[in-house]
Automatic annotation (TrEMBL):
Residues 5-165 form the Glycosyltransferase 2-like domain. Its EC number is 2.4.-.-. Pfam families: Glycos_transf_2 (PF00535). Keywords: Cell membrane, Glycosyltransferase, Lipopolysaccharide biosynthesis, Membrane, Transferase, Transmembrane, Transmembrane helix. This is Glycosyltransferase. It comes from Methylobacterium longum. One of its GO terms (molecular function) is glycosyltransferase activity.
Length: 252
């Protein structure tokens, strides 16, 4: 059984499959891992590229959505299918360098069981000026409202405990609010700087409304969830008093 499951959501990334799979294989060579690609309704040659990549790689699994559900839905499908207790995610366009997966994993494990997420934060971003402006505005507004102490929640490089993720409320764009929601569950968030790089091939599947205006609605919802959080009671089972008669089995 793998300890680490690497989940990669993709949509129309045929040209990026082979090089990124090879990089993930090299980065995780010393780990007990599996790699799960989630094809989120691609209409290009992504399915064929994934089929070719699976040759000789029994640790590579492929899931497919018949129609696109979005990045958060693809990540959720991968996490639910994962066999590892720890999950790593990264974007399928090649901008996230898999070499940082072991670094994030080490950061999470060094922080102990009280840490639920190791969040990558990009340095030297290679996005265009307009895209960076969108992200800067979105991150600034989010940080002021949620106070999640995270400079860059949009970075796809994350390593987290599967059990913690499954406790989070699911909604579209969940992946952009994970630091705040992990903290809401009482777990610490570890941050590590990662180096951004240009996309290998193709074009982004996301635009202005995906990053900014729709995100404001999600932000309001996350703010409400955090304010409504209450401490979870910890029930203690009452033991049978010493000397009390044991329960008798009742036959049919």
């Amino acid at each position: 059984m793998p300890h680490l499951s690497v989940v990669v959501p993709v949509k129309n990334e045929a040209g990026n499959i082979a090089p990124l799979v090879a990089e993930i294989e090299a980065a995780c060579a010393g780990l007990a891992f599996e790699l799960i690609y989630v094809d989120d309704g691609s209409t290009d040659a992504t399915p064929a590229a994934l089929a070719a990549a699976r040759a000789g790689r029994p640790w590579l699994r492929v899931l497919r959505h018949a129609r696109s559900g979005g990045q958060s839905a693809a990540v959720r499908s991968g996490v639910r299918a994962a066999r590892g207790t720890v999950i790593a995610t990264l974007d399928g366009d090649g901008q996230n360098d898999p070499a940082f997966i072991p670094i994030l994993l080490a950061g999470l494990e060094a922080a102990g069981p009280g840490a639920g997420l190791a969040q990558g934060q990009r340095r030297g971003r290679k996005d265009g000026r307009f895209k960076m402006l969108q992200s800067r505005i979105a991150n600034g507004v989010r940080g002021r409202i949620l106070k999640d102490s995270t400079r860059d929640t949009g970075c796809g490089l994350k390593v987290f405990r599967r059990a913690v993720y499954l406790r989070l409320p699911y909604f579209d764009a969940l992946h952009r609010f994970m630091p705040a929601l992990v903290a809401r569950e009482g777990f610490a968030v570890v941050h590590r700087d990662v180096v951004d790089r240009p996309r290998l091939t193709g074009v982004s599947n996301y635009g202005l409304f995906d990053r900014l205006w729709v995100g404001l609605l999600d932000l309001a919802g996350v703010w409400w969830l955090i304010r409504r959080k209450r401490a979870d009671p910890r029930p203690e089972e009452i033991a049978i008093p010493a000397g009390a008669p044991a329960d008798q089995d009742v036959g049919c």
